[in-house]
Design brief:
Blueprint: H1 5-17, H2 25-28, H3 48-56, H4 76-86, H5 108-116, H6 136-146, H7 155-159, H8 173-181, H9 202-215, E1 234-235, E2 245-246, E3 260-261, E4 266-270, E5 279-281, E6 287-293, E7 297-298, E8 304-306, E9 311-321, E10 324-336, E11 339-346, E12 353-354, H10 360-363, E13 367-368, H11 370-380, H12 386-389, E14 392-393, H13 402-407, H14 415-419, E15 428-432, E16 438-441, E17 445-446
Helix pairs in contact: 3-9, 4-5, 6-8, 6-9
Length: 468
């Protein structure tokens, strides 16, 4: 990699300012070593979980002396640099130059990115004022603009959760309300006070950026036992003017943000479109397969939170069951009405079926991977027309290919391992009936979309689910 003098200057400046210009591991898929423990962020510091996660993902960095400086205020240029590290939104307008941002200014590229993506704008006198400190209300407006959060219909009601709502300027009211509705607002020490005109500290920015990434489904919500949940502002269901704010009591024994689906909640699933066919896998297969929610996940009052048909994006991958190769489904994405959420779902391990229990009628019309088809050919012999028996090839994503089978790369077995030798998996095949799968959340999941009726439901607890 070749670095220009300008890029080296920007990198050294970023380090000095505690900002990361590296592509975060969160979005690039590569592991980036980041310092996540800082000498000036104690175990009891209110923003510790927010700071550690944005540092881990490379969105914000510490300083060379091992500090994070959480109480240091943030300038417009610094915030533009943080936005550049955190988000990869498309441009919505053409670039422009500002008379107070020289071409060689350390944050010139970041400022241009913040402007073209719609997060930040300049002033009427064609200045950007890069050294000006940002306020709480401005920060929330920047995020609402750049993430294109829809203006809320219940603006007054949302703003009424703040006892100092009359201090919110007219130009930031919509942005603050949209940020509130989407769970971006974190108020310390009391959630009922926004302090909209206070200058933002690095800790404040870390919390707001973290919540913004959660709302996009790029990060998981804080765990249910985190004390920091008490500072996240979520209006309670049915709240009117002058009411309290979720989490303001400081009670961390229960989740009060109203949008958290609890660990252990069960999901009944099916193939997309409700197709009721079996999937035939070899014990060595890793195959990307999307599923759908087959029964709505509802709150205690019956409100649908995760509707039928919501897409689950995951994969079947090999597991060992008592020394025998089986399969298990894992998912990390949930798509609801076009919006993607980060989740952790898993099925129970799926035991293989011995060759003695497999018959042509038991797999007829099923979808098979290439390796699964080869195993069926071995089990049934050459007299069976697999092309007529099976419904098609299960493929896409990380599926096995013939080259993978022959080469034995990754989790795949070489062709000889499948069709010969004494490997116990030779006589077994995995037959999956998706309609009988039950996926369970491995950790709490934040579902941040507006539910039917416009109100947020109460906390969704883990509960048993019967299969049809």
């Amino acid at each position: 990699m070749i670095f220009s003098s300008r890029s080296l200057f920007q990198s050294s400046t970023a380090i000095a300012l505690g900002i990361s210009f590296a592509t975060p591991a969160l979005f690039s898929g590569s592991a980036v070593a980041q310092r996540t423990f800082f000498s000036d962020v104690s175990g009891s510091y209110w923003a510790k979980p927010f700071i550690e996660r944005v540092a881990r993902e490379g969105v914000m960095a510490g300083f060379p002396d091992g500090t994070f400086r959480p109480e240091q205020t943030v300038t417009r240029a610094q915030f533009a640099a943080i936005l550049r590290s955190a988000f990869s939104e498309d441009s919505v307008r053409k670039s422009r130059t500002f008379k107070d941002v020289p071409a060689k200014y350390w944050a010139n590229v970041a400022i241009n990115k913040a402007y073209t993506t719609g997060f930040m704008s300049g002033y009427p006198d064609n200045t950007f004022r890069p050294e000006q400190k940002i306020t709480k209300a401005q920060t929330l407006t920047f995020l609402s603009n750049g993430l294109q959060l829809e203006p809320p219909k219940r603006l007054k009601r949302l703003l009424s959760v703040y006892r100092d709502a009359d201090e919110i300027t007219e130009e930031t009211r919509i942005g603050v309300a949209a940020a509130t509705e989407n769970g971006l607002v974190v108020n310390y020490p009391k959630t009922a006070f926004l302090n909209p005109n206070d200058e933002m500290t690095r800790a404040d920015v870390a919390a707001a950026i973290y919540q913004a990434l959660v709302s996009q489904g790029k990060l998981s919500a804080l765990p249910g036992d985190s004390k920091a949940l008490a500072y996240i502002v979520i209006p309670e269901k049915g709240q009117g003017s002058g009411g309290g704010v979720g989490g303001s009591s400081g009670n961390t024994g229960t989740i009060q943000n109203g949008r958290l689906v609890a660990r252990g909640t069960a999901f009944a699933v099916r193939l997309p479109g409700g197709n009721d066919v079996k999937l035939i896998l070899a014990p060595t297969d890793t195959v990307q397969t999307n599923l759908e929610v087959a029964q709505s996940i509802t709150s205690t009052n019956g409100t649908s939170i995760i509707p039928v048909g919501s897409q689950i994006q995951g994969r079947f991958q090999p597991v060992s069951i008592n020394g025998t190769g089986g399969s298990q489904y894992f998912a990390d994405r949930l798509v609801i009405d076009g919006k993607t959420y980060s989740v952790s779902l898993a099925s129970d391990p799926i035991a293989p079926t011995s060759r003695q229990s497999v018959s042509p009628s038991s797999v007829q019309g099923g979808l098979s991977t290439i390796a699964g088809r080869l195993l069926l050919g071995r089990i049934f012999g050459g007299g069976t027309d697999l092309g007529s028996l099976l419904g098609g090839v299960l493929g896409g994503g990380n599926n096995n290919s013939l080259g993978g089978l022959l080469g034995g790369g990754g989790n795949n077995a070489p062709l000889g391992g499948l069709l010969g030798g004494n490997n116990q998996s030779n006589d077994n095949i995995v037959v999956v009936e998706p309609s009988k799968l039950l996926l369970k959340l491995q950790s709490d999941a934040l579902i941040a979309h507006d539910v039917r009726g416009g109100d947020r439901p109460s906390f969704i607890s883990a509960k048993p689910l019967s299969l049809r």
